[in-house]
Amino acid sequence: MKIGIIGAGFVGRAIAKLAIAAGHEVMLSNSRSPQTLFSLKPMIGCEIGSACEAARFADVVVIAVPLTAISALPVSELQGKTVLDAVNYYPERDGQFEVLDGRQTTTSELLARTLPGSRITKAFNAIPMTQLESDGLPAGAPLRRALPLAGDDIAGKNIASELYTAFGFDVVDAGPLSEGWRFERGMPAYCVRMTKEELTAALAETRR
């Protein structure tokens, strides 16, 4: 599978490393230029390009940028694409978003409005990237960590599930995209090590 990653910070790089180790082709991009990423090609083994090039390259695109940067995403190139949303809302970094502070919508639904022609699945947002790289275990291992996802697109959920499994994690489906608030920043399941059973219970018990 060809994976384009828009955002080359901690999130993008960690996912790139694991995806390449799992046998996928990866192109990393950022908001500046491919030249600023030239060292990553030999270091990680990925391709580098612009955000537009990463979108065109990919079968699936991971969005790993600050919330304030989603308005700069290449909307036309992402048209019709399966998109995995790893974006989180940090008011101290992003400023205040009244619709999020008031629980009127979710970060993934904001992204879906920005990319109306894309199929969005929320994934990879609820684990620190150092732990994404270190916590994976073989299937069936005791206390194997689980990760949540949410979305309205079955194909996107299947891809996210495939990547979670390949990276060494169990999968918990939290439901449609509108239920992504259950594992946003500040919620009980956010960035906490849990087994599949524990995470399923935590998501169900979470109150908005």
In the CATH scheme, the class would be: Alpha Beta
Based on CA inertia axes, which overall geometry fits? globular
What's the CATH superfamily, by name?
A: NAD(P)-binding Rossmann-like Domain
CATH fold-level assignment: Rossmann fold
| Total E-strand runs | 8
The number of helical elements comes to 9
Number of domains: 1
Structural class assignment = alpha/beta
Q: Helix fraction?
A: 25-40%
Order of helices and strands: EHEHEHEEHHHEHEHEH
- How much beta, percentage-wise? 15-25%
- C-alpha Rg (nearest Å): 16 Å
Mean pLDDT: 96
What is the CA–CA distance across the termini?
Answer: 36 Å
Q: Quick one: biggest sheet?
A: 8 strands, mixed
Describe the strand arrangement of the main beta sheet, using strand numbers: 3-2-1-4-5-6-7-8
**Low-confidence residue ranges:** none
